[in-house]
Structure formats: structure tokens, C-alpha cells
Amino acid sequence: MKEIKCVKYDRICIDCGECDEFCDLNPEKKCDSCGKCISTDKNYKIIKITKIIEK
17: how many CB neighbours lie within 10 A of its CB? Predict the structure, then answer.
């Protein structure tokens, strides 16, 4: 099994969950990609990608 480097600290990933993204509408909830934060009545949507995590 390949060791994964932690994205927040200088160590191997210990699956602590600190890097998991939280909901923009409810910061106490873990993001489940529901899409409610990007709901709009406009004809277009823009999503800004701030980081990519490879596992």
C-alpha cells in the first residue's frame, strides 16, 4: 500500500479528517457535494477549484 503525504502537515496521512472540506452553508457539516451552495436562477454556474487531492 502506497503511503500518502498529508496535505496540511509534514507527515504521512493518518486519515485524521482535518483536510476534509466542510459545507459553505453549514460549517459544522461535512461537504457531501449536494450542490445547494451553487444553486442559482442564472443561466450559468461558475465553480472555482482551489485544490486537487489525489489519493
Answer: 7
Q: Is the Cβ–Cβ distance between 13 and 4 less than 8 Å?
A: yes
Q: Can you spell out the DSSP letters for 10-39?
A: SSB----STTS-B-SS-TTSB-----GGG-
Look up cell 450542490; give the residue: 35
C-alpha cell at 46: 461558475
Tell me, what's the pLDDT at 53? 84
In one-letter notation, the amino acid at residue 42 is K
In the numeric block, which cell numbers belong to residue 41?
A: 436562477
* Predicted model pTM: 0.37
